[in-house]
């Protein structure tokens, strides 16, 4: 099978973008993601993004397949890469448009210079704050500073749904965290009915935080857009920050704004790394 692809990243969270308008509609994207995302025998990536036609009122559709073949409802770094790709490939002419995702309609707004997208501000919607929205076992209500026992340790967690479920743990030193060691036991804890992404957050002051993430279906990643949004909401809920913060990640920063109407906005970059052609078999 022959595939044209574009390799992109959002602050190091990297994706293989495929134009589904031009590919076989019967392709097994789950198997393809496992093959392409392998960093030794494939292209390498945290997941694949598939560009597809959408039903009105959306303008275009995004599918997100994680490296393990599971499908994600939403991806913050992925949506910025997706928005840059569809604009620069002239699949979309507008600088503000609606993307159909499994998490609902998402609206990116592009900053463009000389025909190139330099940054993307995304309306990420309103966070899900109730246990049933995560979804998570237990009595209905918000999960703020709740004790969770996992992997032989206890953590105080705050859980937020930003398209996908996220669990936030405040720590004094982000550099001491090993997501690959700590993440799996929390991700798969039976209290989380769909599993959870895990974010460790160090609060520097009321306007700045640092985040490290273990992503459900992808593992330890350099950045997570939905996780950064969840972290900003969680630190505000715990009265550690205001509702507008700069999130420091391994490869750069995101601006997260939780507005008074509860809508969360994320602003950050997306980069094209290279374009290529892959010829191989999925099996």
From TrEMBL:
GO molecular function, one term: diaminopimelate epimerase activity
Positions contributing to substrate binding: 13, 66, 76-77, 197, 215-216, 225-226
Catalytic residue list: 75, 75 (proton donor), 224 (proton acceptor)
Localization: Cytoplasm
Keyword set includes Mitochondrion: no
GO biological process terms, semicolon-separated: lysine biosynthetic process via diaminopimelate
InterPro entries: DAP_epimerase_AS, DAP_epimerase_DapF
Alphabetical keyword list: Amino-acid biosynthesis, Cytoplasm, Isomerase, Lysine biosynthesis
One Pfam assignment: DAP_epimerase
Pathway(s) it belongs to: Amino-acid biosynthesis; L-lysine biosynthesis via DAP pathway; DL-2,6-diaminopimelate from LL-2,6-diaminopimelate: step 1/1
Chief site of localization: cytoplasm
EC code: 5.1.1.7
Any one GO cellular component localisation term in the record: cytosol
Catalytic activity: (2S,6S)-2,6-diaminopimelate = meso-2,6-diaminopimelate
NCBIfam families tied to this protein: DapF
The protein's role, per its UniProt record: Catalyzes the stereoinversion of LL-2,6-diaminopimelate (L,L-DAP) to meso-diaminopimelate (meso-DAP), a precursor of L-lysine and an essential component of the bacterial peptidoglycan.
Summary of subunit composition and partner proteins: Homodimer.
Family the UniProt entry places it in: Belongs to the diaminopimelate epimerase family.
Protein name: Diaminopimelate epimerase
Gene from which the chain derives: dapF
């Amino acid at each position: 099978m022959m595939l044209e692809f574009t390799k992109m990243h959002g602050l190091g969270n990297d994706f293989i973008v495929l134009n589904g308008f031009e590919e076989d509609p019967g392709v097994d994207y789950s198997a393809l993601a496992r093959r392409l995302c392998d960093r030794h025998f494939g292209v390498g990536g945290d997941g694949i993004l598939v560009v597809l036609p959408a039903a009105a009122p959306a303008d275009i559709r995004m599918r997100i397949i994680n490296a393990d073949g599971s499908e994600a409802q939403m991806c913050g770094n992925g949506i910025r890469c997706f928005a840059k790709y569809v604009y620069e490939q002239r699949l979309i002419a507008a600088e503000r448009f609606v993307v159909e995702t499994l998490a609902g309609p998402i609206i990116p707004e592009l900053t463009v210079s000389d025909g190139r997208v330099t940054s993307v501000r995304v309306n990420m919607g309103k966070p899900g704050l109730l246990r049933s929205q995560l979804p998570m076992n237990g009595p209905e209500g918000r999960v703020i500073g709740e004790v969770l026992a996992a992997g032989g340790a206890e953590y105080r967690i705050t859980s937020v749904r930003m398209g996908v479920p996220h669990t936030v743990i405040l720590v004094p030193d982000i550099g001491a965290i090993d997501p690959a060691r700590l993440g799996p036991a929390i991700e798969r804890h039976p209290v989380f009915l769909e599993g959870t992404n895990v974010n460790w957050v160090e609060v520097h002051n009321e306007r700045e935080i640092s985040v490290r993430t273990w992503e459900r279906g992808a593992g330890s990643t350099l950045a997570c857009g939905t996780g950064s949004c969840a972290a900003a909401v969680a630190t505000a809920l715990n009265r550690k920050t205001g509702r507008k913060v700069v999130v420091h990640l391994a490869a750069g920063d995101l601006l997260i704004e939780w507005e008074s109407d509860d809508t969360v906005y994320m602003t950050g970059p997306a980069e094209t790394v290279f374009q290529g052609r892959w010829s191989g078999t999925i099996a």
